[in-house]
Amino acid sequence: LLGVVGGTGTVALVGGPAGHGPLFAEHLGEAQVVGIDPDLRHWSAPTAFSRMCSAPGLPFFASSIRALAIDGRLGGDLLEEAARVVSPHGRVVISSATENTLPMLEETGLKILVAEAETVVAVLG
Fold first, then answer.
1. To pair with 96 at 20 to 30 A between CA atoms, which of 16, 62, 120, 121?
2. Which tens digit of pLDDT belongs to each residue from 59-98?
3. What InterPro entries is this protein classified in (predicted)?
4. CATH no., domain 10-124
């Protein structure tokens, strides 16, 4: 769903999706995978998977993230942050999306590719 099969760049996993970080890191090769969730602080993980806590926003420059997966229950502010940090043509995947997720994503300039059940895939540009 993230649209990343290899290469370089940064993939960010925020909230619940961060728990899958080591698996992503194993399969993405040179891409840097970053998990952002306070529950990760006690994990030991491979060096290709970085863990951090961040509040209130995401600790990345604008347009610097290749793909991002985020837990929709974390709220609209983080959805706005996702739109800010994802690079042009980069994907944002929202798990546990709420009824407000689609309108919020469209307001940020992200284009909805797929919306099914509680999962939404959007792209910038």
1. 62
2. 899 999 999 999 999 888 999 999 999 999 999 999 999 9
3. SAM-dependent_MTases_sf
4. 3.40.50.150
